[in-house]
TrEMBL record:
Domain of life (superkingdom): Bacteria
Organism: Thermus composti
InterPro entries: YeaO-like
UniProt cross-references to Pfam families, sorted A to Z: DUF488-N3i
Protein name per its UniProtKB record: DUF488 domain-containing protein
């Protein structure tokens, strides 16, 4: 699968391929030059209400994933992201300190599901 995740605060590397920030808010204290973001996909993060409800609580992760998948249905930015993945490696960048239970990991899981089921949209 051409998609991977990485904290936006970690140094960029050639293996990252296309770097896509999937957070609604720009990461605190990080310049655009240092972040080297190719696309800030502001249309892909979960809604503020869903993000606040989830609050990176591992116990809510599966329900968060389900709700986030619903929010992404028909989202043209998701289709663009899937198309970019067909061209090469895409790194989904996130700012959260929580590296396992966050929206980038959820988006990665959704993209993997779509590639396994052959679905055109989440």
């Amino acid at each position: 699968m051409p998609f991977r995740t990485k904290r936006v605060y970690d140094p960029p590397s050639p293996e990252d391929g296309l770097r896509v920030l999937v957070d609604r808010i720009w990461p605190r204290g990080l310049s655009k030059e240092k972040a080297r973001v190719d696309w800030w996909a502001k249309e892909l993060p979960p809604s503020n209400a869903l993000r606040r409800w989830f609050a990176h609580d591992p116990g809510k992760y599966l329900e968060f994933l389900r709700r986030y998948r619903e929010e992404l249905k028909g989202n043209p930015a998701l289709a663009r992201l899937q198309a970019l993945g067909k061209e090469g490696t895409v790194t989904l960048l996130f700012g959260a300190k929580e590296t396992r239970y966050n929206n980038a990991q959820a988006l990665l899981a959704i993209l993997k599901e779509e590639s396994l089921t052959g679905g055109g949209e989440a």
